[in-house]
Amino acid sequence: MDTAAEGRRRENWREDVAGRANVADTPELEAYYDALEALSMGPLWTVANKIEPWHPVPDSVPVIWRWKDVKPAISRAPELVTPEQAGRRVIMLVNPGRRQHAAAVGLLYTGVQIMDPGECASAHRHMASALRFIMEGSGAFTIVDGERLSLNARDFVLTPNGTWHEHGVDASGTRCIWQDGLDIPLMNALDANFYEVHPNLNQTPHLPPEGSVALYGAGLLQPTEARANWRKPYSPLLKYSWEATEEALTRAARASDGSPYDGIIMDYVNPLTGGPVMPTIGASAQMLRPGERTKAHRHTGSFVYQVAKGSGYSVIEGVRYDWTERDIFVIPSWAAHEHANASDTDPAFLFCFHDLPVMRSLGIFREAALDEPHQTITRTA
Ligand code: GTQ
């Protein structure tokens, strides 16, 4: 039976290290603990080694969701529910260690959403920050605070915290599937989540279509006065096209050796600040050059990857995860990891989003190389 006392015993890591908790259970202590529990109190020393670990010990485990499994799973949803019924017709990708938080990894949520031509999901807004990375299909659009944006495969679009947003597919389009990324678990961990349905159910776009791309998407800015009234904590540019992203990485590879741990990697940024696209979620794109195998390192921060192009593998805590286009995988905080491109002729491209803006703004980002350049591969997932 799982009594409270047994639970405590399991948590009481008996590490024989000076300065760490090391208290043997006795009947008197058990009685004392029970008395404390009845008063909504508890002894720190039975949990100290767990709640103050030597280094991060995430509940999240590395996971890969392969497109060959995700596509048939999400494709069943339109046969069973409409967007009107579901609100958002989404299959969540849930980390086995974080199920009760609906997290894919750490405090990040991800899911895949499916929309048929002519369908539209109603408008809402929430405290959670959100993004999408388009997986397949044509004719998708999203409306963000009155700006309509069309979405093609591998485009990256923001629906920042507090913005009204809805998604749909034009009647002339094809079935679309995209990945959603949100910080829902973070908002819930902070008890700061709010959610509102748009009073008209759908927005009437009142801004020029693609207006943010027109104003901010070319790497040039209007003079200071024209943009001084942007006071929002997120990027005014809402869409980053894949074409420009691949071009940027390909050009960067001509001018830089990139990172030994990530190859050619570039952040999607707020063009006004050079900082992350949203206050709590950052995003990057990286290119692994033909034959490239990066070195292993670990750092704080939780990461959700989607394979944009090509195939290869990542080694996470000694386990090899082979991936190909549209596969999604996660790397928990402080997990050792390295990436490899399987092709000797073509580059591979990875998209990822992460909580580094949170880590950095709180001053808790930490990074370490491993002693050896590569991990020993213990098994293949
Ligand atoms: O499209 O706004 O996958 O609010 C989960 C929550 C998508 C969305 C999700 C959401 C959305």
On the 0-100 scale, what is the average pLDDT? 94
CATH architecture of the largest domain: Sandwich
Bound molecules: 2,5-dihydroxybenzoic acid
The total count of strands amounts to: 23
Report the C-alpha radius of gyration, rounded: 23 Å
Strand order of the largest sheet: 1-19-16-21-14-13
Q: What is the percentage of strand-forming residues?
A: 25-35%
- Provide the number of structural domains: 2
Low-confidence stretches: 5-15
CATH topology annotation of the largest domain: Jelly Rolls
CATH homologous superfamily classification of the largest domain? Jelly Rolls
What is the count of helical runs?
10
In which range does the helix fraction lie? 10-25%
What does this structure look like?
With 381 residues, the protein is an alpha+beta fold. 20% of the residues lie in helices and 29% in strands. It has a six-stranded antiparallel sheet with strand order 1-19-16-21-14-13. 39% of the residues are buried. The two termini are 34 Å apart. It folds into two domains: 4-51, no CATH class; 63-380, Jelly Rolls, CATH 2.60.120.10. The site of 2,5-dihydroxybenzoic acid (GTQ) has 9 residues, from strand 3 and strand 10.
